[in-house]
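Researcher: Go.
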Amino acid sequence: MANKEKIKLEKKIRRKGRVRVKISGTAKKPRLNVFRSLKHIFVQLIDDQKSVTVVSVKDSEISAKGGSASGGKESKVKKTDIAFKVGELVAVKAKEKGITEIVFDKSSNKYHGRIKAVAEGARKGGLIF
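Model: Structure:
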C-alpha cells in the first residue's frame, strides 16, 4: 500500500515539475500559484526573481467575511463557489499592489473544478493571464 502512495506522489512531483519549467513570475508579471487540499484552497502571487510572495489569499478569509455568526444550521456553500471568490479576492489585492498581468500556475492539478474557478474569479476581478 505504501508503494502505491509513493508512486502517486512521484507522479504528482513530475507533473508539477513539467509546469514549473515552462513558467516563471517576475515583478511585473507574477506567478499565480494555486494549492488545493481536500478541504481548503490557497492562492499566492509570487515573484520568482526575488523569491518573494507578493499577495496571498486563503479560503478562510472568504468564510470569515461572508460566514454567519449563528450557531444553527447554515446553508452549505460549495467549495467551487468559495474558490471563485478566492480568485476575485486575489484580483482585488493584486490591483491594490498595482499588478494587472499574471502567469497562472496550476501546479500538478488539472485545469478543472476549483482550479478553474480560481482562474475565472481572477479574470472576473480584472487580472489578465
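Model: Confidence is low (pLDDT under 50) at residues 68-72.
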